[in-house]
Structure formats: structure tokens, C-alpha cells
From TrEMBL:
It comes from the Eukaryota. It is found in: Golgi apparatus. Residues 631-669, 1247-1284 are annotated as: Disordered. This is Trafficking protein particle complex subunit 10. GO terms for cellular component: Golgi apparatus. Pfam families: Ig_TRAPPC10, TRAPPC10, TRAPPC10_1st. Residues 14-325 form the TRAPPC10/Trs130 N-terminal domain. InterPro entries: Ig_TRAPPC10 (IPR056917), TPR-like_helical_dom_sf (IPR011990), TRAPPC10/Trs130 (IPR045126), TRAPPC10/Trs130_C (IPR022233), TRAPPC10/Trs130_N (IPR056913). Residues 832-988 form the TRAPPC10 Ig-like domain. SUPFAM superfamilies: TPR-like. Keywords: Golgi apparatus, Transport. It comes from Coilia grayii. The keyword Coiled coil does not apply. Residues 1068-1298 form the TRAPPC10/Trs130 C-terminal domain.
């Protein structure tokens, strides 16, 4: 490019593509207005190369007269001055005129275009009706067009266009005009696309040569900006912005490479010292001054950045994205400062601050000019960064020019101010009339101390208000802290303290320890200047304990505290109370002995472990712990209601006898230690709160990860950084209403005194009227210190530790609340006696050990004191001469052992107790034996030694284990009480027995089932059954093979005997089953007896039943679905005995005595269908061998071996007969179910198969309503036979049933 050959171009936002017009200028002038207006009305689709998306654009043109000077010369690539289309206008209608002048003029025009390589041209022939009228002998119109096309458009006939009289309003003229506009737009767009593509290729080639030594960024900048101008000319602002962004990124990369040691030659022009710092210029579309500097290669870094950003700002505003301007501006200002350092550009001190300040205000004024106030307030989050940056730079300028000091600027400061103002230059013309221009503000602010303070405070408060409005409280506090520093340098600590306290509140709440330390030092300086003694002392204590400070700084603040404490002696009322949280922390409290519960008069030591946070040793005049005492009240929690405990469970001697709501403290370990949570003195909260929390959980760890940005081409490292993945857990905003005092009081540190949010000292006064534990002259060394105290235990009750107070001179460091709450109990306990088994279950029948435990309480067991136990026959006390009693202290430590002396008489067992001091425990073991009751019969009552009526033990069933239990009550007389106490011991019977009577015709068998229901395995020996009332004609023959065997847990043993008799047996037989048992795991254990009494009634067999099933006639086997015959034979086996004759209801007719029986055939398994009558009443002769047969029909429902239907036989009694068989509750066999008849069976003609619903019922017990006439009539009853009186010979028989011949599905029932 040759800039000296270019004509000066005025770059405005009105630039349009140039179109030259040759030929008849008067003709063109007549059509210019309509052409310029109607050309951009219709959009055209612009298709670009390299796959870029098409766009719809409106083409405009700048029509100028054709001159050869407008044609581009060789090497000139400027697009804005490039004529994209050349048009020749003519309205010639005469051939002679055409040949004489027009043709020659057209030829010169085309020759000139070809000479300059321009191929984009168009010839327009305008048809005029007026000339046609004047020239009637002219050739037709087409002859002129043909000549022009033949002469100039042989290969491009579309380059010649005929335009019918455009000034005439007719359809033909309008159609011709529209066609002409379309052709013009198309040719113009084609030319524009072609030339623009060629320009982009040249620009790309130029960029690829950037590694050449002679390559210049300024030259390339002008070329690519030319492209941006073209896009802007087409109103494609986004594409124009992309060009500037590419230039920005390219320049930034070169600067970064220079900083890394890879510099380009052309960067040397940007390293020249900065001589002007007048800020950004955003009120001009194009800053021609800086553009010319760039074009000449004389621009500085700030000039290039200022011009580049001004162009980006203009385009962003055209794109209606003003808020992106503020974001880019903030990045630009920070990047420029870094780039000047990387390029090592010489800048006058303070010049950059001036440039940044002016630039911030210029951007803000530019945004205010294109947005209304409502938009500005709604989007202040985008502009607040610029306000803050401007505030910081103005403060920096004030420090530099001496405008912040108390004495004002000196001569050196004034000279520096003059140099800075000189670099600003003259004010720009566009801001001269603006009273609030950035130039005037900066110049006024640097002119005097008062003006600087005014502008600085105005900017600071504006930034704080914006931050507060958008909820960025941290940033607002940071600006406030900067304001506080300004006030401190101005000597106004009163104004600075409020801002510092607000910042400190935020830092403490969010856990920023370093910021807390720094801010707290500033607060301490304010408080010292303001004379706030208590607040200053509290803050000094916090700083003295702050690990972020050096040892010398900590010692300085500690010495400040000690100096005040040793100034003089004041009364107790005048002592200054401070919070202990920063002075020392309570870490542990230990009870010695290791129990927070002691008896009256016991020695109890409290050892406090205090961690001193001071850097030096501090001597305490007094260390005191205040306590609250709760007096013992009757009936309070834990107080025993009687002198003896009767529960069978083990109990701690110290529990249950604690007076005054005793119990243990919260968090007491087994060794008697209470650990207190650690508290951060810097923040006043728990150390477990983490960085951003305030809870008591484990600290939240920072989850930091490294991130790297590498180049996709060569994998080189571009940037690296650290990211925190759990920032949402660490940086959580706290409620603004949350008080730091509340958070501090939650820990053991109490309130944070002078560091509270409000700046005042919280109340940490000691409570009045409380008991105190005191120790004098204690020296606290840095770190942990152990201080012992002797705790009072003279009165029973609860002692609660409330506060800790350390006195140093006239200072008191108070811990207002001890958390968690610590208290110890002093109890006065009544003597207690506890009897508990040593196993889970006491088993009856075997010797069992029980433990006697005596808690003496306040009673002293003297020599001669004894326990008097009443003896019972069912539970004797088994004692030996080697019984030993053990004595232990209240803490469980053994004291000694002593042999017991036990004496038994007929009624009482006396146990002499060894002498035992108060609040000790005495325990010993005794063996007891509970006899197993042979029968549940309730014996006579007898009297205990104390006159009470005692019942013999009654067995009952423990349903959850299946074992029957026996409760044994023992009366005990204790020497410390005048009343006797009943102790209940529960024994479980290890066995469960049941009997049954088995029959085989007339032969009878007795079976006893013995089940082991305990968890112990026993050895069983010699099971026998004997008669309780001897009958000589009765004989029992044992069928048991083993004399001794094992009975495992939850298993049963069955024993069988055959009963034989020579004559008729009595109606009731009484037997007793006995066996010996012993635990299997004890080989030498003594066998103990077990007895079980039972009785049998009516053991003789009276009737036998026999059933037969026959197939249908003509069939050899029964088949399904075919009726079969069922015959039931009922046979009387014996003559009735005398007792049976009295009980049996008989009738006599014609010398024959008969009794009525009811039979019933049922099939509960649904294998048979009983057809016809299934039950009935028969009259049975009362004679041996008398037989009655009943026949009926049944139908098998399934094939296979089917069991016989069930046949039941019952007594049929008249309504006035008394049932002879009473329900036997001891029998283990259940009675058979009976049928309920809805009407008398004697008159029943046909009865269906009936189901039984219960046992003995009269016939009148029916579920269906009876007719009114028969409700009052007495009905007969049914009574079952006793066990063994009816023998069913067909029990268990089966019959083969074949399937039907035509069945396709075979169903087989296997039983």
C-alpha cells in the first residue's frame, strides 16, 4: 500500500458503495432522486464464500460523475474509494447522432475501464416519447439497441438495458423501471461480492506473512479495518465487530509472546514512553487523530487500545448491546495496565491512574447517553465495576498527590500534580460545554483537598449503593473499608469505625481469618484513638490470641492489656469485665473420682484444663468457677420410693438413688472427662464451622483442582489455574440479621466483646449470689494449664457449673456460659436390696443361684445385723458353709470379703451380714430350689411369719416361651426397716407333659408325651406310671425299651404302657407319671424327680364300627361317577357294667332293652359324595355282640386309593336325660365334632350330609329359625362317647377306585 498516493477520505457512518455515471449527465440528474430512493427498498440475498450463512441486505449507492481519477490505481486496495459499478446513460434515438458522437464517447469510456481492469459496467438506453414525436423518420428503437449490443455487448448482452420513459407514469414504464432496479441490484451485489472476496484473499495472504521481518501490524490493521468499514457500510455490524475482535486478539497474542520472550520487531513502536493519557474517546464515530497515528506507525499502546475500543464501542451500541461495552471496558483497562508492564513501557507515575479514571468516566457517560435512568438502575450490576475502579484510581491519585494526608500536599506533590495535568492535554471540543465531563472532574479533584474529598466520597458512596442494591455485600464492605482507611488518614476515626465494623462483621461471618485480623487491627487503632477503653482491651485480647500475627505483634497487644490491668487497684464493682474467649479457652473438665455422681461427704476433685491463648505467661490473682445449687426435693427424679428394690434386673448402686434430679452430665466419658468444643477466637464461632459455616460439624475442606488450557495445535500450555469445586459450601451468604454474639455464645467462649457487629461490649458480668470455687495466684502459661478445685459435697442436690472468671488486676475475663452444661450430683441414698438371678430363666426342679445385692446407702451395717427370710416348702434355701460376701465401694472398687453365717429353722432362714460402711455395696450368692408341682390343684393357704396369708405357688404359662412358670414369694426382714418386703422369683418348669388313651379293639394303652420346653438338654431316667389308688385286678405293662435317654431342647419323648385288667375296670382310673432328670452337661449332677398326675374315665370299649364299600352290580371295582354301596356295621362288644347301666339311657320293649345311637357319615376330604340319607338314629340292643347294619350309597369323585368316609357314632339322649360325660379339661385329646340337626331325627325322612359346629349341643340349638309351634317343645340332645368307648375298625382303610372308561383327563388322588 502507498498511503501518500491516496486521496484523503472523510470516514463517516454515511459511507456507501460508489457507482460512477458517464454519458448524458442531464438525463442521469433527472433520474437520480428516484433511483437513490428506490434502490435500497427491496432486500437482496447475499451469498458469501467459505460456507458462510447467507444474509438479506439492503443495497445503497453513492452515485458520482465518472472521472478517471476515481478508478483504482495499481496497488491501491482501498474498498471505500473503490467504484463497484460504472453506468453509461444515453437517450440517443438518432442513428447519425449515435455514429457521430455517442459511439465514440462510449468507446473512450470502455477503453478507460479496460485500461484500469474494471469489468463491472452497464449501458442504459432511455426511451423518450418526446423525441419520437420530433423525429418521425427515425429507425425503430431496436436498431439503436442492436447497434450498441453489436458494438459493445457481443458476449455480455445483459450489460445493455433499455429503460422505457421512466418519468412517465404508465404500466410499461413502471415494469421497465422495476426490471432496471433488479438488474442494478444484481450487478452491484455481484461486483461487491467479487471485489470483497478478492480483498479478503489479499488480506489473508498479508496476515499469513506476519512472521516476515518486515511485516507491520499497523499496515495490516489498516487493511482489516477497511474490511470492517465495508461491513459497517452494509450495516452488518456483527461482522464488522468480528474484524476488530480479531485485531484485538492478534495484538494481545503478540504482547503475551513478547512477555514470554518472543518479541516482534514492529512492537518496538509501541514501547515508546507514554506522553499523553487523556483517556478513551467514545463520543466520535471515528477518532481520526489516533487513526492517523496508527497509519503512520507513531501510535503508542494506549493510542492503539483507545482507538480499537472506541470502534468496538460504536459497533456494540449499534447492536444495542451497551452493557457489553462496560464489561469489555473493565477488561480493557486491566489488560492495558498489564500490557504496559509486559512491554516495559515508561509511564509517568500516576499517568495510568489518570488514564483509567478518565476512561471509566468516559465509558459511563457514553452509556448514560444511550440509556435512560430506568435502564441504568436496572443494570447497575454492569456499571458498578467501573465506578469502583474509578474510585480506586482516584484514591491512588490522592495518595500520590498528597491530597489524603492531614497536612495537605507539599511542593513535590504539587509538581507531580502539574506533570499529571500536563499529560491530559487540552479538553476535547465535544466535552468543552459539558460541566460534568471526566476531564473537568479529574482536574477539579486534583486541584484541592476539599474538591478531592468531595469527588472521592461521591464515587465511593455511589459504588456502595450500587453494590448494596444488587446484593453484593462483600464488595460493598470492601469499598467501605477503603473509605475507612481514607478517614483514618484524614484523622477521623469516628467516621472510619462504622465502616470497619461492617467489614469485620462480614469477614467473621464468612470465616476469612486473614481479613478479620487485618480489619481488627484497624478497629483497634480506631478504638484507641476514640478512647473506647473496654472495646480496645477486648479487641487487643483477640489480636493477642490471633495466630495470623507475628509473635512481636501479639506480645504488643498482650502488653497493652497487662499495662491497663496493672495501672491501679479498683474495687470489685469497678473492675472491667471482658469475654474470656480470646484470653483462654476451657478445653476439658475432669472428675476425680471418674463419676459426676457422689454421695454426701465424698471427696470430689474438679480439674479444669484451660488453654491460654496469650503469647506470654499471665499471672491470675484469682480463678473462680460459679455454681448453681439445686436443693433435694422429695419425689424428684431418681429418688427411690422404698428402701429395697424388687426388680430382678441388675442396677448401678449410684442410679436410682440420686437426689435433686441427679444423673450424669452431657458428654462425660467413662474416665470422667467432659470435652468442650474448640472455639475460634478470631471469629468467635466453633472451629468445626469451616471456612464459610458456623456449625459444630467437621471443618469443610477446600476441594481444589488444577485446570489447564492447552493449545489444540501443539498442546502447549496457554493458561493454568485453580478451581474450587465446593465453593457453594464455603461461600454461603449469611442472614444479615444474624448476630455474631449469638454464634459466639453457642460455643464455650461466650460473647466476643468488642468485636461484635455493633461495636459495643456485650454483657459478661458474673452472676450474683452463687457458690464459687476459687483458687488464688495461678500462672497461666501459653498452651494448656491444669487447675484443680475441691468440689463441695456436704448437701444432697445438683451442682451446676455456670461461669468461669479469671481476674488479672482490674480486669476480669468472664466465660458467661459453660457449654455443654456440666453438673454433678450429690445424693443421699436409702439402703436397697436387690435379688436377681444369674441366668436368664430360673428352672424349677433344679438348684438355681440367685444374687443378693445390698446398697447400704446412708445406713451402716453393724455386727449382728441379719436378713430374715421366711421358709416355704415349695422353695427351700440351699446353703453351704463356704458362702462368701464381697464388699465394694461406691465406685466399684473391691474392699474385702467375709464369710456369711446362715442359720435355718422351721420357719425362718437367718443370714448374718458382715459390718459394712455407708455407701458401699454388699453382695453374695445363694442356691434355691423350687419344687415342680405335680398337679395344678390349689392347696390350702397358710400364714407367713409376718401374719400375711400366703398361697402356694400357682403355675401359669409364659406364652412367649411356651413354658409354664411358678411364682415364689419370699418375705424378707431387713435390719434397716421395720417392714417386711415380699420378693417374687419366677421359676420356669422345664417340661410339659400330656397323656392320651389309645385303643386296639378291647386292648388299651396309655401314652405320655414329655416335651422339653427349656433351652437345656436333660438326661431322663426311669420313666414310670403308677396307680394312685391301687386296684389289684389292674396291671400296667411298660413298652419302653430305654431306661435312660437324652431329651434335647424343644424335643419330646413318648412313653407307652399297656393297661390290662382281670375284671371290669372302675369308671375312673388315676395314674401318676414320674421320672428323674438332670442337666446333660453336668455329668455328676444329682437327678431330680418330675411328676405328672392324670386320670382316665370309661376306658372300656362299648361299640365297634366296621364299614364296607362294594362296587355297583356287574362291576368288579369301583369307578368314578358310579354309585357304590356303603354298609356300616355297629356292634355292641360288652354287657354294660353297673356304673354304665346307671348312666346309659335305655328303653325296654317286649323284654328287650335298647338304647338310641346316632350315626353320621361325612367326608371332610371331599373324595366321596354321600347320596341320600347320611345320618340317622338307630335303636341298639343293650347286649353283647348285638349288631346293627346301615346301608347307603356313595359316589367316588376321584380315581385312586381313596380313604373310607368318616363314620361318627354319638349318644342320642332324650330331652330330660343328664349328660353323663362332663368336659375333660385335662385330656389331651379333643372330642370329635358333632352334627347339629335342624329337627328331630326320629321323624326325619331324608337327611343330607351334615357338618359339625361344636361339641355337646341339644337338638334345639340351631341356627335356622323354628316354626312358632315347635319353639317351646323340649328337644333331644347328642352326647359323644368317651375316648376309647368306640373303636372304628375301618380307620385308615382305602379302596381302589378306577377312572371312568370315557374320561380323557385322569385325576388321581394319592393319600
Amino acid at each position: 500500500m502507498e498511503p501518500h498516493e491516496e486521496k484523503p477520505i472523510i470516514y463517516t457512518m454515511e459511507n456507501k458503495p460508489i457507482v460512477t455515471c458517464a454519458g448524458d449527465q442531464a438525463l442521469f440528474a433527472a433520474l437520480y432522486s428516484a433511483l437513490a430512493q428506490q434502490l435500497p427498498r427491496e432486500p437482496m440475498e447475499w451469498r458469501r464464500s467459505y460456507g458462510r450463512a447467507p444474509k438479506m441486505i439492503h443495497l445503497e449507492a453513492n452515485f458520482v460523475q465518472f472521472k478517471e481519477d476515481l478508478l483504482p490505481k495499481e496497488g491501491n486496495k482501498a474498498l471505500l474509494t473503490f467504484p463497484f459499478l460504472h453506468i453509461y446513460w444515453t437517450d440517443c434515438c438518432d442513428t447519425e447522432v449515435y455514429k457521430a458522437s455517442v459511439k465514440e464517447d462510449m468507446l473512450r469510456w470502455q477503453t478507460t475501464l479496460k485500461h484500469h481492469g474494471s469489468q463491472d459496467w452497464l449501458i442504459i438506453v432511455v426511451e423518450s416519447d418526446a423525441k419520437k414525436k420530433n423525429k418521425t423518420n427515425l429507425l425503430p428503437r431496436t436498431s439503436i439497441m442492436d447497434k450498441i449490443r453489436n458494438d459493445f455487448c457481443n458476449k455480455q448482452s445483459d450489460r445493455c438495458v433499455s429503460l422505457a420513459d421512466p418519468l412517465k407514469e404508465s404500466s410499461r414504464s413502471q415494469e421497465s423501471w422495476n426490471s432496471f432496479l433488479t438488474k442494478l441490484r444484481t450487478l452491484l451485489l455481484m461486483s461487491f461480492t467479487k471485489n470483497l472476496g478478492r480483498f479478503e484473499d489479499d488480506m489473508r495472504t498479508m496476515r499469513e506473512k506476519r512472521t516476515d521481518p518486515g511485516w507491520s501490524f499497523c499496515d495490516y490493521f489498516m487493511v482489516q479495518e477497511e474490511l470492517a468499514f465495508v461491513f459497517e457500510m452494509l450495516q452488518q455490524y456483527e461482522d464488522a465487530l468480528v474484524q476488530y475482535d480479531e485485531l484485538d486478539a492478534l495484538f494481545t497474542q503478540y504482547v503475551l509472546n513478547f512477555g514470554a520472550g518472543d518479541g516482534a520487531n514492529w512492537l518496538g513502536s509501541f514501547c515508546q514512553p507514554v506522553r499523553s493519557w487523556n483517556g478513551l474517546v467514545l463520543r466520535r464515530p471515528i477518532d481520526m487523530e489516533k487513526r492517523e497515528l496508527i497509519q503512520r506507525g507513531e501510535a503508542s499502546l494506549l493510542d492503539l487500545r483507545s482507538y480499537l475500543f472506541s470502534r468496538q464501542c460504536t459497533l456494540l451500541i449499534f447492536l444495542l448491546r451497551p452493557w457489553e461495552v462496560t464489561q469489555r471496558a473493565l477488561q480493557l483497562l486491566h489488560n492495558c495496565v498489564q500490557e504496559l508492564r509486559l512491554l516495559e513501557v515508561s509511564v509517568l507515575q500516576g499517568a495510568l491512574d489518570c488514564w483509567v479514571f478518565l476512561s471509566c468516566l468516559e465509558v459511563l457517560h457514553r452509556i448514560e447517553g444511550c440509556c435512560d435512568r430506568t435502564q441504568l438502575e436496572a443494570n447497575c450490576s454492569h456499571t458498578v465495576g467501573l465506578w469502583t475502579y474509578a474510585t480506586e484510581k482516584l484514591k491512588s491519585l490522592g495518595d500520590l498527590c498528597g491530597l489524603v494526608s492531614k497536612n495537605g500536599p507539599n511542593s513535590e506533590d504539587l509538581n507531580r500534580t502539574v506533570d499529571l495535568l500536563a499529560g491530559l492535554g487540552a479538553e476535547r471540543p465535544e466535552t468543552v460545554n459539558s460541566p460534568q465531563s471526566p476531564y473537568k472532574k479529574l482536574k477539579e479533584a486534583l486541584s484541592s483537598v476539599e474538591a478531592f474529598e468531595k469527588h472521592y466520597l461521591e464515587l465511593s458512596h455511589a459504588a456502595m449503593e450500587m453494590y448494596t442494591a444488587i446484593g453484593r455485600m462483600r464488595s460493598a464492605r470492601l469499598v467501605g473499608k477503603s473509605l475507612a482507611e481514607f478517614y483514618m488518614r484524614k484523622g477521623d476515626p469516628q467516621s472510619a469505625e462504622g465502616f470497619l465494623q461492617d467489614s469485620l462483621k462480614s469477614y467473621v461471618a464468612e470465616g476469612w481469618s486473614l481479613q478479620v485480623t487485618h480489619t481488627r487491627r484497624q478497629v483497634a487503632e480506631c478504638q484507641k484513638l476514640l478512647g473506647q477503653t473496654e472495646d480496645y482491651l477486648q479487641t487487643s485480647a483477640l489480636l493477642a490470641s490471633d495466630a495470623n500475627l507475628t509473635d512481636e505483634e501479639r506480645k504488643h497487644f498482650c502488653q497493652e492489656i497487662l499495662n491497663y490491668a496493672n495501672q491501679g487497684t479498683k474495687s470489685q464493682d469497678q473492675k472491667v469485665s471482658l469475654s474470656m474467649v480470646a484470653f483462654a479457652q476451657l478445653r476439658e473438665l475432669r472428675f476425680q473420682p471418674a463419676s459426676p455422681t457422689v454421695h454426701v461427704g465424698a471427696a470430689l476433685q474438679l480439674e479444669l484444663r484451660l488453654c491460654s491463648l496469650m503469647p506470654v505467661a499471665v499471672r491470675l490473682e484469682q480463678l473462680a468457677v460459679s455454681m448453681h445449687f439445686s436443693v433435694e426435693q422429695p419425689g424428684q427424679r431418681g429418688a427411690p420410693t422404698s428402701s429395697t428394690s424388687t426388680t430382678p434386673q441388675r442396677r448401678n448402686p449410684t442410679q436410682g438413688g440420686t437426689s435433686g434430679g441427679g444423673g450424669t452430665s452431657c458428654g462425660v466419658t467413662p474416665d470422667g472427662t467432659v470435652v468442650f468444643p474448640a472455639v475460634s477466637p478470631a471469629g468467635g464461632g466453633l472451629l468445626g464451622a469451616g471456612v464459610g459455616g458456623s456449625g459444630g460439624g467437621p471443618p469443610t475442606a477446600l476441594e481444589l483442582y488444577e485446570i489447564q488450557d492447552r493449545s489444540p495445535s501443539d498442546n502447549s500450555l496457554n493458561t493454568t489455574g485453580v478451581v474450587c469445586k465446593n465453593v457453594h459450601l464455603l461461600l454461603r451468604r449469611r442472614d444479615s440479621s444474624t448476630s455474631l454474639d449469638a454464634a459466639s455464645a453457642g460455643g464455650s467462649g461466650g460473647v466476643v466483646g468488642g468485636s461484635t457487629a455493633s461495636g459495643g461490649t456485650a454483657s459478661v458480668a458474673m452472676e450474683d449470689g452463687t457458690q464459687m470455687l476459687k483458687t488464688e495466684n495461678v500462672t497461666l502459661l501459653p498452651g494448656n494449664n491444669s487447675i484443680p478445685f475441691t468440689a463441695p459435697s456436704e448437701k444432697p442436690g445438683t451442682y451446676t457449673l455456670r461461669q468461669v472468671c479469671a481476674t488479672v488486676g482490674q480486669l476480669q475475663f468472664v466465660l458467661p456460659h459453660i457449654y455443654p452444661t456440666v453438673h454433678y450430683a450429690v445424693y443421699s441414698q436409702e439402703p436397697q436390696l436387690t435379688i436377681e438371678p444369674l441366668t436368664d430363666n430360673l428352672l424349677a426342679g433344679l438348684p438355681q443361684k440367685v444374687k443378693f445385692t445390698i446398697v447400704t446407702g446412708h445406713y451402716t451395717v453393724k455386727k449382728g445385723d441379719a436378713l430374715q427370710l421366711s421358709n416355704t416348702e415349695s422353695m427351700p434355701i440351699l446353703h453351704t458353709n463356704s458362702c462368701t460376701a464381697r464388699i465394694a465401694s461406691s465406685t466399684g472398687e473391691p474392699v474385702g470379703e467375709s464369710a456369711l453365717s446362715i442359720h435355718s429353722s422351721e420357719k425362718v432362714t437367718s443370714i448374718s451380714l458382715p459390718p459394712t460402711p455407708p455407701y458401699h455395696t454388699l453382695d453374695f450368692q445363694l442356691d434355691v430350689l423350687c419344687h415342680i408341682p405335680a398337679s395344678p390343684a390349689r392347696p390350702e393357704t397358710e400364714r407367713l411369719t409376718n401374719g400375711e396369708v400366703r398361697h402356694r405357688p400357682k403355675s401359669r404359662t409364659r406364652y412367649n416361651s411356651g413354658m409354664a412358670v411358678v411364682d415364689q414369694k419370699v418375705s424378707i426382714d431387713c435390719p434397716w426397716s421395720i417392714y417386711s418386703t415380699l420378693i417374687s422369683l419366677t421359676f420356669a418348669i422345664p417340661f410339659k407333659a400330656k397323656h392320651s388313651l389309645l385303643s386296639a379293639g378291647k386292648r388299651k394303652y396309655v401314652q405320655v408325651c414329655l416335651q422339653n420346653v427349656s433351652d437345656t438338654t436333660f438326661r431322663l431316667m426311669d420313666p414310670t406310671v403308677t396307680q394312685r389308688q391301687q386296684i389289684s385286678s389292674l396291671e400296667l405293662h411298660s413298652l419302653n425299651a430305654k431306661a435312660q435317654q437324652l431329651v434335647y431342647s424343644k424335643q419330646s419323648v413318648f412313653c407307652l404302657w399297656e393297661v390290662k385288667w382281670a375284671s371290669d375296670p372302675p369308671a375312673c382310673l388315676q395314674f401318676s407319671f414320674s421320672a428323674s432328670f438332670a442337666p446333660a452337661e453336668q455329668a455328676d449332677a444329682e437327678f431330680k424327680p418330675y411328676c405328672y398326675d392324670f386320670q382316665l374315665e370309661r376306658v372300656s370299649t362299648l361299640y365297634s364300627l366296621k364299614a364296607e364299600i362294594r362296587p355297583a352290580d356287574g362291576e368288579q371295582q369301583c369307578r368314578t361317577g358310579t354309585l357304590c354301596g356303603l354298609e356300616v356295621a355297629i356292634t355292641r362288644l360288652t354287657e354294660p357294667s353297673e356304673s354304665e347301666r346307671d348312666e346309659e339311657e335305655t328303653t325296654e320293649s317286649e323284654g328287650l332293652r335298647t338304647t338310641k345311637l346316632m350315626y353320621e357319615v361325612v367326608d371332610n376330604s371331599s373324595n366321596w359324595a354321600v347320596c341320600g340319607k347320611s345320618s340317622g338314629v338307630v335303636s341298639m340292643p343293650v347286649a353283647a355282640s348285638a349288631t346293627h347294619r346301615v346301608q347307603m350309597e356313595v359316589m367316588p369323585l376321584f380315581a385312586g386309593h381313596l380313604p373310607f368316609p368318616s363314620v361318627k357314632l354319638l349318644k342320642y339322649l332324650p330331652h330330660n336325660a343328664t349328660p353323663a360325660i362332663q368336659p375333660d379339661t385335662d385330656s389331651c385329646l379333643e372330642n370329635d365334632n358333632l352334627s347339629l340337626l335342624d329337627k328331630g331325627l326320629e321323624d326325619q325322612a331324608d337327611t343330607a350330609s351334615l357338618r359339625s359346629r361344636g361339641s355337646i349341643h341339644s337338638l334345639g340349638s340351631t341356627d335356622q329359625p323354628q316354626p312358632p309351634a315347635s319353639r317351646g317343645l323340649p328337644m333331644p340332645r347328642l352326647e359323644p362317647f368317651g375316648p376309647g368307648q368306640v373303636f372304628n375298625c375301618s380307620q385308615g382303610r382305602q379302596v381302589l377306585v378306577l377312572p371312568a372308561t370315557d374320561d380323557h383327563i385322569l385325576e388321581v388322588n394319592a393319600t
